[in-house]
From TrEMBL:
GN (gene name): Mei1_1
Organism: Hypocryptadius cinnamomeus
GO biological process: meiosis I
InterPro entries: Immune_Signaling-Apoptosis_Reg (IPR052133)
Name of the protein in question: MEI1 protein
Length: 302
């Protein structure tokens, strides 16, 4: 089925949302819901179809073209297609790297546009934000070095030289700039305050991957980002309201992040003791799977 569906997608235009959206979803689940052996073959089939990759390129570019000032609150058919496109490309990046699959056609993405989509949001639906963050995580995990992806700069004309980093920190973090990192972290913190479960999971995962990337590039920058005082205020905000327990997946994962990077000004021995006390009093068998997994990671890190 992959062959005819890929070929069908390649014959479509981005505006053919009724046909494309379920087709891209089928390709996405074909990658994820199969055996490792079949998964490797599925990745090869998708990456060998040039017309499909050209269609995906057009879909990604529509993210910046389909952004009217007053987007509907619900997920429109256009936004649903964009979600499917970003999630499929993020998966292709992941599995192409895992299996070292041959690439027949590269995808070009403007990193500034991707970052601005998260930083400024511009009324984008939550599911679209989550999908773009999944893509951002994929490129961060691969240090922006995927053979499937070409990162371009918004301010660089075709054929022109890439702009030079303005500081030593920017050089170390390239293609990210220090100012972009700060803006991205602040925006991720603000998105966490919404307390939407799906959004919170994506934001914390993105923050984890970002700090890991920074730590590989420049440890001082990573530790500086992880120890920002605003993080402590964020934790208090997340713990306010109805559920004040530390045993919330996003809170546990944030705590794990701060313990890992030794941010003692954010999480103290008192908070660590409180979490352990809550865990001791809880019925572990009845905890949701996400909470149980996050608690395991936290205790292992401690």
């Amino acid at each position: 089925l992959l062959f005819p569906v890929c070929n069908l997608c390649g014959k479509c235009r981005p505006r053919d949302t009724d046909l494309l959206q379920p087709s891209l979803n089928f390709l996405y689940w074909s990658l994820h819901q199969t055996t490792p052996c079949s998964q490797q073959r599925a990745v090869a089939v998708l990456l060998s179809n040039v017309s499909l990759l050209e269609l995906l390129q057009k879909v990604l570019e529509c993210t910046w073209l389909w952004s009217p000032p007053s987007r509907p609150a619900y997920l429109s058919s256009e936004d649903a297609l964009l979600c499917s496109g970003w999630l499929l490309v993020a998966s292709l990046l992941l599995y192409q790297h895992r299996y070292n699959t041959e690439v027949h056609q590269t995808l070009s993405v403007d990193l500034t546009e991707v970052l601005n989509a998260v930083i400024f949001r511009n009324k984008k639906p939550i599911l679209l934000l989550v999908s773009i963050m999944q893509f951002l995580r994929a490129v961060l995990r691969q240090n922006f070095s995927s053979s499937l992806l070409v990162i371009v700069s918004q301010n660089t004309a075709p054929g022109a030289a890439q702009p030079q980093p303005s500081s030593l920190q920017d050089t170390a973090l390239h293609p990210l700039a220090m100012q972009q990192v700060f803006s991205l972290v602040v925006s991720l913190q603000n998105l966490l305050v919404h307390k939407d479960l799906l959004l919170s999971q994506a934001v914390v995962a993105c923050l984890e991957t970002l700090v890991e990337y920074l730590y590989l590039k420049n440890q001082d920058v990573a530790l500086h980002i992880a120890s920002q005082p605003w993080h402590r205020f964020l934790l208090f905000t997340l713990l306010s309201g109805g559920q004040k327990s530390f045993l919330q997946p996003e809170v546990l994962r944030l705590m794990t992040l701060f313990v890992r990077y030794q941010s003692s000004n954010i999480i103290s021995q008192k908070e660590i003791s409180q979490i352990i006390q809550e865990a001791a009093e809880a019925n572990i068998a009845e905890l949701p799977e996400a909470t149980s997994h996050a608690l395991h990671l936290f205790l292992s890190q401690v």
